[in-house]
Amino acid sequence: MNLVLKMGVCNIMSAPVYIIVLLSAFFIAYLSMPGVIKIAYRIGAIDQPDQRKVHSAKMPRLGGMSIFLAFIFSMIILQKYSGPYLGIILGASIVFLVGLLDDIFQLSAGVKLLGQSLAAAVAIYFGVMVHFVTNPFDGLMALGYFSIPLTFLWIVGISNAINLIDGLDGLAAGVSAIAAVTMGVVSLLQGQVEVALVAFLLLASILGFLPYNFNPARTFMGDCGSNLLGFILGCLAILGTAKSATLISLLLPIVILGIPIFDTFFAIIRRINKRTPIFKPDKDHLHHCLLAMGMSHRNCVLVIYGISGFFGLVAITFSFITSPKASLLLGLLLILVVLGASKIGMFSGSSARMARQVIEPNPSAKISEHI
Question: Per the domain annotation, does 364 fall within a domain?
Fold first, then answer.
């Protein structure tokens, strides 16, 4: 694997075209944003202030278009449009278009789910698929025909999980960027050089958008952006470990995407405990809880960046250690996450009233609820 890693890194770093395309992805996203903002106002993709939101002025919510254009253009230039990568391009296009319509016309949850399902089906058709799961008795178990439904649930779930954490300026974009760079590094360590390159392309596209989205934001990414990032990250997580059948490798995507996955999982548990509908919005997600503790909008985002970065470092570390040691560390990490979530009120929902009191004075923040 060391030989594959060295060859992969050498190919990427010695080929100027790759570096040029990565820089192009960044600048396409960055330079297209002023035009995207104008388009958002023209077509009505505007986030209107109301009693549920904190921002006091109209805010364009079409920033995901710049990420989409940068990523797709870069993929085409590098001729990554065959096999599973064609599935990613087509599926991403479907997710983006449905999200765009939602940002303009406010589609129903059923229509949005239909779009995500179609995108996941396209990705699966072109080869993006989970083939193994962990088995408590002998480590791994081939899924066979169950590969399709499990892959489907993973892609749709991650798409919605990224959408769910899109609640503060720069939060979803920053967490996605950290996940993308982590996937790139881990994929290199797994010998998946092409997957690493695509992950770095996504990172460059996000970084071009982030200056416009970080607090105080000049634009939001909208559903066309958050669902797009979730879809691509979900697919890359599968491709990055497709050739590895080790137990730890199969768990790495869960660690890398720890913030959106655990936040979604805790939201489900919390709503079950409170006997409220699972899809009913609340204000007890991680960012709400941190705001309730008195953190400023920007500090809250930076803290979550730090947590996400920690998860990324753990995932990379897992690539260098044996399965028994990694399993022990993973268990300790899970205990730490559960204890931390319980302490700040993510299970009980005790932060909702406090969060509202803390965040109301901040007019530049965006507290949106997606599920």
Answer: no
Q: Is the pLDDT of residue 44 over 60?
A: yes
Determine whether the annotation assigns residue 47 to a binding site. Answer: no
Report the distance separating Cα 162 and Cα 175, nearest Å. 9
Whole-number Å distance between alpha carbons of 152 and 213? 30
pLDDT band at 130 (very low <50, low <70, confident <90, very high): confident
Question: Are 34 and 214 a contacting pair, CB within 8 Å?
Answer: no
- Structural domain range at position 282: 2-359
Q: H or E stretch including 141?
A: strand 139-142
Give the range among 29-33, 76-80, 218-222, 356-360 with minimum mean pLDDT: 356-360
Number of domains, the chain: 1
Is 287 a domain residue?
yes
Residue-level pLDDT at 322: 64
pLDDT 10s digits, 286-322: 887 888 888 888 999 999 999 999 999 998 988 787 6
Residue 11 assigned as binding residue: no
Dist. CA 235–CA 156, nearest whole Å: 10
- Asked if residue 262 belongs to a domain, the reply is yes
Contacts of 252 (CB under 8 A, 6+ apart): 186, 237, 240, 241, 315, 318, 319
SS3 content of the chain, % helix, strand, coil (to 5): 70, 5, 25
Please report, as a single letter, which amino acid is at residue 260: P
Tell me which DSSP letter residue 217 carries.
P
Whether residue 369 is contained in a domain is answered as: no
Residue 23, token pair as written in the block: 């820089």
Q: 3-state SS string over 341-361?
A: HHHCCCCCCCCHHHHHHHHCC
